Amino acid sequence: MSTPDTPVPSEPEGPKGHGDRTKPGGEPPLKRALGPKLLILFVIGDILGTGIYATTGDVAGKVGGALWLPFAIGFAVALLTAASYVELVGKYPKAAGAALYTQKAFKVPFLTFVVAFMVMCSGLSSASAAARAFGGDYLGEFTDAVPPTLIAILFILALAAINLRGVAESVKANVVLTLVEVSGLAVILAIGAYAVFSGEGEPSRLTQIETGGTGYALLTGVLGATALGFFAFVGFEDSVNMAEETKNPARNFPHAIFIGVGVTGTIYVLVALISSLLVDSETLSGSSGPLLEVVKAGGVDFPPKLFALIALFAVTNSALINIMMASRLCYGMANERILPPTMGKVLSGRRTPWVGIVFVSALAIGLVSTGEIEGLGDTTSFLLLCVFAVVNIAVLVLRRDPVDHHHFRTPTALPVLGALTSLILASPLADRGSDVYVRAGILLLIGIGLWVLNKVVMTAREKSGADAP
Predict the structure, then answer these.
(1) What is the pTM of this model?
(2) Which key words tag this protein in UniProt (predicted)?
(3) Residue 49 falls within a domain, yes or no?
(4) Residue 94 maps to which CATH number?
(5) What is the span of the domain harbouring residue 187?
(6) Burial (CB count <10 Å: 0-12, 13-18, 19+), residue 7
(7) Fewest beta carbons less than 10 Å away: which of 16, 56, 187, 320?
């Protein structure tokens, strides 16, 4: 991770060879191993997951049969912000993503810390939503003997154990699970194609918007459904952290991010259309495994238990990625003395950041103990929408900081629209529950408390050093 509290190094950043020279202190740079095809697959795999498998029903509960509409709007909002990330990662092809861009644009270390901590917490709330989905109706196809909250807690502990064992094991598991979750969505698309050609389903549902009112109530209902549906699109922002391990990032990232968001967005809208076509919104909203209901209603002899198993693998993959990301962010911030140095301790032998893993896992257990899929998914969206608003503003501020290499430049209107739409969806206009703001606020207060504690300790150490004879 980059150093939010420290000025960004002024090494060359050209599209070829930038950052390839030895870093200060004699440390070698990260290996540039990701080519364009692998980068596209990474972006797609990072976005696909819990959002579509778990929150389709909750979105249907907010908006009714036209549940494809929030996903389509979320798709457009994601593209706006993706354009800003593409410009910034091409301009500053380094790891750290939003924290790096915030520091470069505003040079306020506390703001940079808040953005970095919000990104970390969004990963935890996403993993917690996945844990809740794991313990819901998908697992219910096999057993309902264990309380869902206990299952979710055990699930988080199992992911912590995988992370403690090593990053190689985590990445290998991620590759397998990504292939499995893609196969599950392919099953839904195949069932939808069969339904369309055989005349199954109820097309009239696709235009039904049921938000419990008209005018303002209709607007806030659709915005609320969109904010929740936006949870399905998070993930592309993580890919910019691979900038230092990507070949020619200024050239390859625009294609990878736009293709990745485009492919996943198209799949999500199609899955939403198929879900509404085959299953009424009341049934979808009453299930924590909504796509399982689609499989059962599709008229295709596909074993529900097999699809439930695929879905369990899919939500596991999302949670694994997010726990791993959050623990590494915690480790990086500790190494940069932004969080207490103790949180950067590494497990001897396994070389994994054990304190960071234990800390983020404890927060995740707290989250799954106090929230359901809808609230946790909406918390993820809220945190990242706030971050996206900052990033969209940062891209405009950084226009006054030219670099000496060619990079993608998004039309000015797009980050302006991206900032506005992100702020609107993060605002109370989106009709989200107060628990979302409380949960996000508590997480942020924990982070600020650690930041203040670290400042006090570091100041005391510096003072004692200055007073020593």
Answers:
(1) 0.84
(2) Cell membrane, Membrane, Transmembrane, Transmembrane helix
(3) yes
(4) 1.20.1740.10
(5) 36-402+409-457
(6) exposed
(7) 16
